[in-house]
């Protein structure tokens, strides 16, 4: 059972205003997104991800045609979540943008300090060298397993992309009878908690496709690649490496890497899958 009371939660609004004004450099995403989008209809199809790989032209897009504009768009179901003790629930937050956004979840005390730390550790390639920024969507889930009183209170999704930062918030309220001892250690089928549905990055760059997982027992992670030539194994490509945290690293990205990268998390209880569409952009610096 979930309740979304939205705008009536003045605390949430006050908090996010505070955060946005104090963090500084906050500018209007919607406007920058609109102007970016109007010039770049093509990206809509890439972000929608519904097309076949074969539909994408091999000569486009070149970032030369792009307005070198940064943007970010974040969505989450904000408001009040009324949860029963012992149940499990997830919150989902999504961010699209350029440079590729990162998502974090924070709660507890000293929110502003936590946010400043996150800004500090989030480095995008755009600020570290002259390479054109990548563009991506990221999806993140916050799992509340076996809700208890310690889960009550505000929780914030923090999305960071270059100089942009946006906070979305929910408040968790707990109700229902107290839990019996030991009622929480139940097996849970795998859930992929973080991945990038879409990633557009310049050819030659190194990219990481995250695939964070959750479950009890802990799921195994592996990847399949669906490209022009059908499904291939990771082992056949020396530029591709499976990382310890379940992510996939692709070195010196090539046009041929265009494709759908499917992360599979499985355990004896089942599996979850998430697909990342990788689009290698042509560099305009050549
Ligand atoms: C942000 O994303 C949401 C969901 O995908 C979409 O409905 C909304 O129009 C986007 N905002 C802008 C300004 O494009
Ligand atoms: C996960 O899937 C792979 C491939 O289908 C399989 O070999 C493996 O046994 C599965 N792992 C578990 C724990 O079921």
UniProtKB/TrEMBL annotation:
Keyword Disulfide bond among record annotations: yes
Q: What is this protein called?
A: Ig-like domain-containing protein
Q: Which SMART domains match?
A: IG (SM00409), IGc2 (SM00408)
Instruction: Tell me yes or no: is Disulfide bond among this UniProt entry's keywords.
Output: yes
InterPro entries in UniProt: Ig-like_dom, Ig-like_dom_sf, Ig-like_fold, Ig_I-set, Ig_sub, Ig_sub2, Neural/epithelial_adhesion
- Listed PANTHER family: CTX-RELATED TYPE I TRANSMEMBRANE PROTEIN, DPR-INTERACTING PROTEIN ETA, ISOFORM B-RELATED
Source organism per entry reads: Microctonus aethiopoides
Signal sequence bounds: 1-24
Domain Ig-like as annotated: residue spans: 57-159, 190-276
């Amino acid at each position: 059972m979930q309740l979304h009371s939205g705008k009536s939660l003045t605390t949430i609004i006050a908090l996010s205003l505070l955060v946005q004004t104090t963090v500084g450099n906050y500018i209007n995403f919607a406007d920058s997104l609109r102007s970016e989008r109007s010039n770049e209809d093509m990206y809509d199809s890439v972000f929608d991800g519904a097309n076949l790989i074969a539909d994408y032209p091999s000569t486009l897009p070149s970032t030369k045609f792009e307005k070198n504009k940064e943007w970010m768009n974040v969505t989450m179901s904000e408001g009040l979540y009324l949860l029963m003790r012992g149940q499990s629930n997830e919150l989902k937050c999504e961010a699209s943008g350029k440079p590729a956004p990162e998502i974090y979840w924070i709660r507890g005390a000293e929110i502003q300090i936590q946010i400043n730390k996150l800004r500090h550790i989030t480095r995008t390639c755009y600020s570290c060298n002259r390479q054109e920024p990548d563009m991506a969507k990221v999806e993140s889930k916050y799992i509340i397993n076996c809700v208890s009183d310690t889960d009550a209170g505000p929780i914030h999704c923090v999305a960071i992309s270059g100089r942009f930062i946006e906070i979305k918030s929910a408040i968790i309220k707990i109700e229902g009878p107290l839990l019996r001892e030991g009622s929480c250690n139940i097996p849970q089928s795998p859930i992929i908690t973080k991945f990038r549905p879409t990633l557009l990055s310049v050819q030659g760059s190194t990219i990481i496709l995250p695939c964070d997982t959750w479950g009890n027992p802990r799921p195994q992670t592996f990847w399949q690649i669906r490209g022009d030539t059908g499904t291939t194994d990771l082992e056949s490509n020396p530029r591709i490496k499976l990382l310890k945290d379940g992510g996939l690293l692709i070195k010196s990205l090539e046009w041929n890497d265009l494709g759908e990268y499917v992360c599979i998390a499985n355990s004896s209880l089942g599996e979850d899958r998430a697909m990342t569409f990788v689009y290698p952009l042509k560099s305009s610096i050549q």
